[in-house]
TrEMBL record:
This is Carbohydrate-binding protein. It comes from Streptomyces prunicolor. Residues 1-48 form the signal peptide. It comes from the Bacteria. Residues 1-21, 484-515 are annotated as: Disordered. The keyword Protein transport does not apply. Gene3D superfamilies: Galactose-binding domain-like, Single-stranded right-handed beta-helix, Pectin lyase-like.
Length: 836
């Protein structure tokens, strides 16, 4: 099965793993041996449907299985053949030693149940190191097992499982449900076969015709220190045939320290793997004796030889296996696999492993490339490293956020041959070298993929592979470092995405949680994506994703908590904006910055207002917006008034979209404000506004000292290298003083401290030059990301820059710098504030 060709050197990997002993025979023998050591009872058949049988292993004497006279060992259960509607009840707070091999099957609508009675802790079934399963069902169906604690610990590994349901009937068996269990310390082979080394294993044996299952449900269980794997729904070996198990649901389980993998389905159709949380797996690779199946590689959640699998809402973290080690894996021979809404972090091999076709003896499906793979609305944080995890591994095959073993699997003739990666968020912290696109085959690989609307926040140094096929890269955000093979993307965005709390800033947990990757309303990713058909309808946070309206870039499709409505005019109409006085403005399907529509003013004295209500008095808000003018030299104002303070605005004079950022504080009794876009009088061309946003700030503290140089001195600013700058009592924007540079190679810099690592900040400052055609830059550097700056013109122009500190950075250096020219440059009114 999975990746056997990557086994450790010297480890035997058989061509045919079926040379191992038949598991059912071994289990039957062990059950017989174990039963001989227990109190003997007379085997009985349940004579009436709906009978309840009671087990109290703390009872001093063995009874008849009634509530008044319970059995006091597992022997009573093992000696009974149960029928539809029966219940096997273990007393809460007790421990039974041994293995359970109950007989009988339920019927459709009338299952046999095994659970607990009474109050207290879950009853424990402890197999005490015996080989085989704690609970074994062979060719039985319609069983519900729940509310128990299972243990089978030992100093040496062997074939051990918590629950093993095995089908060698040559037909379809129905309904196995395992729920609300605590299954731990199952000492199986970390490198051995799957279902027979599992917390819950549902297995089909080699038969002709093929045996399969229908309606397998594993939910709400807790697994800890299970070797090899928590949940496996698989055949008993490779080459089992083409029959597919149906109706598998694995959901809402918690798994920690699994020896190898966490969840696996093989030869399934329509499996749903939903809402599971798995961490710290992959530490063990001990294999069975020579000549039996051996695979030391592992991943968190994966599938092979399966169709129509949906993997969603899962969290996999800190997987430490060095051979694969990814959170998720689409392995060989799969068709139409969808990964969506998952959160992956700190997995050694990366977020997702993608396998090419290859040859497994007796398994023709392995030669079929997986097709129809869709990867959407997932969040990967610092994958490719175990940094911050309590345990770690060593990579033997490298790692990458998207980790390809070979080329991209493209199935010839498939209607969905190229894998689709869209609207994912991938974050790599500073100090890591994890590639975003990685292949073990090198930096240029065969095949092609589609890569659209993804947000890549790359403070690391990792690169990308290229493909020999015609891959599509469109409307992605590439922020941070830009390595040499970063894909060409004509519609890419390179500004800070303004995540809420990017990076590993929560020191108590070493990761942020997926909510950190929602964005602020001023984010450049909002409405900057491309429409994708059949997009699933929802993002990672439950926000709707339209089939026709322009989406965001990344896994979040909300508005960021924007207090403005119709902020991008994407309804195609003005409401709830209203006409400002003067010549009417309109919403047009042209000159938009993002999406399809924008506000278009008339040439002179024209614009639109929106009234905000329900604001909080004495609170600072941030207004941002984008504007441009059709005619050079004219101006457009983005501003706010009626908030209990002095009207404030920023003039935009650029013929290409530039951003304005305005802080305003409501009066002590003010709960309203009016936001506007206004084309100033005297012009001859239209003005345009798009993507306006208002959000409250939790703190408006300016971290820059002497931000307007009003002390009349430079301190604590320091001279940049080159010609000296000075503080001048002229050319100020506000107040008396401003920073004046020399004509060339001159400026000043200040390091602001006390910032939050992984925090999103706004730097706003104003700059101008004395001579047209020259430039003075306002910028920020040494914050953990890539230096960013904007340049001013001959009139004071605001330079808003959003930046995110790295996980090891609590300071940043802001500056004003004139690089070259013949006349001075000027800067004034620096502000650095943290976004909430």
């Amino acid at each position: 099965m999975k990746r056997r060709r990557f086994g450790s050197p010297g480890r035997a990997v058989p061509a045919n793993p079926r040379t191992r002993q038949r598991t059912s025979k071994v289990l039957a023998l062990l059950a017989a041996v174990t039963g001989a050591l227990l109190v003997p009872v007379t085997a009985t058949n349940a004579s009436a449907a709906g009978t309840s049988y009671y087990v109290d292993c703390s009872a001093s004497s063995n009874g008849t299985g009634t509530s008044a006279s319970p059995w006091n060992s597992v022997a009573g259960v093992n000696g009974t053949t149960f029928t539809a509607g029966d219940s096997i009840l273990f007393k809460a707070g007790t421990t039974c030693t041994g293995q359970l091999t109950p007989g009988g099957s339920g019927a459709s609508g009338s299952n046999i149940s095994m659970t607990s009675y009474g109050s207290g802790a879950k009853p424990i079934i402890d197999a005490a190191g015996a080989t085989g399963a704690v609970i074994h069902l062979l060719n039985q169906q319609y069983w519900d097992i729940g509310g128990l604690e299972l243990i089978d610990n030992a100093s040496s590994p062997a074939y051990r499982s918590g629950v093993l349901a095995e089908n060698s009937s040559g037909g379809v068996l129905n309904h196995i449900r395992v729920h609300d269990m605590y299954i731990h310390n199952i000492a199986g082979y970390g490198g051995g076969w799957y279902s027979t080394n599992a917390g819950v294993g549902v297995q089909t044996d080699h038969t002709t015709p093929v045996s399969t299952w229908n309606d397998v449900v594993v939910e709400n269980n807790t697994f800890d220190h299970v070797d090899r794997i928590a949940v496996a729904v698989t055949p008993d070996a490779d080459g089992q045939g083409t029959g597919l198990t149906t109706g598998t649901v694995i959901r809402n389980n918690t798994m920690t320290y699994d020896g190898a993998d966490d969840i696996l389905v093989v030869k399934n159709d329509g499996a749903l793997i939903d809402g599971n949380k798995a961490g710290y797996g992959g530490a063990k690779s001990t294999c069975p004796p020579s000549g039996q199946y051996c695979n030391g590689a592992s991943a968190g959640i994966w599938m092979s030889g399966s169709s129509n699998t949906v993997v969603q809402n899962n969290e996999v973290y800190c997987h430490i296996n060095g051979a694969d080690g990814t959170g998720f894996d689409v392995d060989w021979g799969n068709h139409n696999t969808t990964f969506q809404y998952n959160y992956s972090h700190q997995n050694l091999g990366g977020f997702l492993l993608v396998m090419p076709p290859f040859t497994i003896a007796n398994e023709p499906t392995s030669t079929v490339p997986s097709d129809g793979t869709v990867v959407r609305y997932n969040i990967s944080e610092n994958d490719g490293s175990n940094s911050g995890c309590p345990t770690s591994g060593t990579q033997t095959h490298g790692g990458g956020v998207l980790h390809f073993v070979g080329g991209v699997p493209n199935q010839s003739g498939s209607t969905s041959a190229i894998p689709q990666f869209y609207n994912n968020t991938f974050s790599v912290r500073d100090g890591l070298s994890t590639p975003i696109l990685y292949s073990r085959s090198g930096t240029s690989i065969s095949g092609a993929l589609s890569f659209r609307n993804n947000a890549i926040f790359n403070y690391g140094s990792g690169n990308y592979f290229t493909t020999t096929g015609s891959s599509t890269y469109s409307n992605n955000l590439f922020y941070g470092n830009h390595p040499s093979r970063e894909p060409a993307d004509a519609a890419k965005v390179t500004s800070d995405p303004e995540f809420r709390n990017a990076g590993n800033t929560n020191t108590s947990s070493s990761y942020t949680g997926k909510n950190a990757y929602q964005v602020h309303p001023s984010s450049p990713v909002i409405r900057a994506g491309a429409v994708i058909a059949s997009n699933g309808g929802y993002d990672a946070y439950g926000n709707a994703v339209s089939a026709t309206a322009t989406p965001n870039i990344g896994a979040y499709n909300g508005t960021g908590g924007n207090l403005l409505s119709n902020a991008g005019f994407e309804t195609g109409s003005l409401s709830p904006w209203t006409q400002a006085s003067g010549t009417a403005s309109s919403v047009t399907a042209s000159n938009s910055r993002t999406g399809a529509d924008a506000l278009t003013t008339a040439a002179s004295g024209s614009g639109a207002n929106q009234s905000l209500t329900g604001l909080t008095p004495s609170t600072t808000y941030l207004l941002t917006g984008w504007g441009k003018v059709a005619t050079a030299g004219e101006t457009l104002a983005i501003g706010v008034k009626g908030f209990g303070g002095t009207e404030t605005y920023t003039n935009v004079a650029s013929t290409s979209y530039s951003q304005a950022a305005i802080l305003f504080t409501t009066g002590s009794s003010s709960t309203t404000a009016t936001v506007y876009c206004w084309k100033n009088a005297g012009g001859t061309g239209a003005g345009y506004c798009d993507d306006l946003a208002v959000e409250p700030l939790s703190s408006a503290t300016n971290t820059v000292t002497n931000p307007g140089f009003e002390t009349g001195a430079l301190t604590p600013w320091t001279q940049s290298t080159g010609m000296a700058s000075s503080v001048a009592a002229s050319n100020s924007r506000t107040g008396t003083y401003a920073l004046q540079t020399a004509a060339t190679a001159s400026g000043a810099i200040q390091t602001v401290t006390g910032l939050t690592s992984g925090g999103s900040y706004l730097l706003a400052a104003w700059a101008k030059v004395g001579t047209a055609g020259e430039e003075v830059a306002v910028g920020v550097k040494s914050f953990g990301g890539t230096e960013t700056y904007l340049r001013g013109s001959t009139t004071y122009t605001e330079q808003p820059i959003f930046f995110t500190t790295g996980v090891s950075n609590t300071s940043a250096s802001v500056y004003c710098y004139k690089n070259s020219g013949s006349a001075a440059g000027y800067c004034d009114d620096f502000t650095v504030v943290k976004l909430p």
